[in-house]
């Protein structure tokens, strides 16, 4: 019986997606839950898994093709006979190989990572892991495979061929010292988008991912359609730092999650948004929509770029709830496991460039939201207090806003409210 493999149902805002790499080939046995292919959308990377045991009968859409929601991309023959030998082969593996399979199955990694390790028979212990808490990511495995390919010696029959004779779709740069002299009459092959060498120097051309292209489109749209202004202030973070030091261990012991700064930023933003609801509003054509809820987007970094998952109803969440949700989103972002629903919506966004060392920046709006708060690096600086110069851990904060709907007075007062709440955290408990 043939069973269709379909593209998952995409969000209304996403019209199409791109197929990345098939993990199985036609004729190969598959089991229910096996990862077949990754699909990249404007927001997330989705993993399509087999829903039945059987044999991959045919692939209808190839790597790199554009697909639509619910479109059929492959078919599985559930009565195929190749599935049974696969299980038998696993039991007949040599002890060393069987041990490796068991090790792969037990490591803490996404299904896509485990499938790659099993497919290429890789030892996870020998691959440098860059994920959170030493977690192995898909990018780690791919980079490891690329490094092995580049280190492999070329066949003797190809030794005399020019470097530009065969170029992979995304070639690795060639050190200038190893590059052959340029031949004016020699043209690049049709398979390459651009020669590896340009005036004797290495270059590489790589197509933008869908996420990067979509991010570029949204940023340009925000600049063209919004009257963006930014107001700045600075915050003495000493009270928050002292509070964290005092309760850090007890908080983690009680709730099983670390007490970070983002819960303070989120709570302070929510209280300030209650006082200035226009900052929490959005624009729809010629209308302003005032939101009676507080869904806060938290910008987090991922291997594919910056993504903004949403902490919903942040006004009713505790500090521990917010920290747990942010930690969950951070891990999902590293593993490319964020869902479309988790990235959709949001009434206000917070971005913290300080974790990368940014001292000051002007964040750009995330339409249709009307404002975004930028936090920055905490740095000791001399400041004046009561006529004396003292050194305090200071942080610049920036609020970018759409001047079409938000007046400068509201923007400035909102930022002052955030400053006051952070400089006196007791206000967050009393909500004053």
Question: How would you describe this protein?
Answer:
The protein is an alpha+beta fold and 432 residues long. The chain folds into two domains: 145 residues, RNA polymerase II/Efflux pump adaptor protein, barrel-sandwich hybrid domain (OB fold (Dihydrolipoamide Acetyltransferase, E2P)); 220 residues, Chloramphenicol Acetyltransferase (2-Layer Sandwich), CATH 3.30.559. It contains eleven helices and 21 strands. Strands 11, 14, 17, 18, 19, 20 and 21 form a seven-stranded mixed beta sheet that branches. Strands 1-8-6-3 form a four-stranded antiparallel beta sheet. β15 and β16 form a beta hairpin. α7 crosses α8. The radius of gyration is 26 Å and the shape is globular. About 12% of the residues have low confidence.
Summarize the structure.
The chain is an alpha+beta fold and 432 residues long.
What structural class do the secondary elements suggest?
Answer: alpha+beta
State Rg.
26 Å
Low-confidence stretches: 83-93, 154-193
Q: What's the count of strands?
A: 21
How much of the polypeptide forms β-strand, as a percent range? 15-25%
Largest sheet: 7 strands, mixed
User: What's the number of structural domains?
Assistant: 2
Q: End-to-end distance, in Å?
A: 65 Å
Number of helices: 11
- Which CATH architecture of the largest domain is right? 2-Layer Sandwich
Mean pLDDT: 79
Write down the CATH class of the largest domain. Answer: Alpha Beta
**What is the CATH superfamily label of the largest domain?**
Chloramphenicol acetyltransferase-like domain
The backbone outline, from C-alpha atoms, is globular
Q: What fold name stands as the CATH topology of the largest domain? A: Chloramphenicol Acetyltransferase
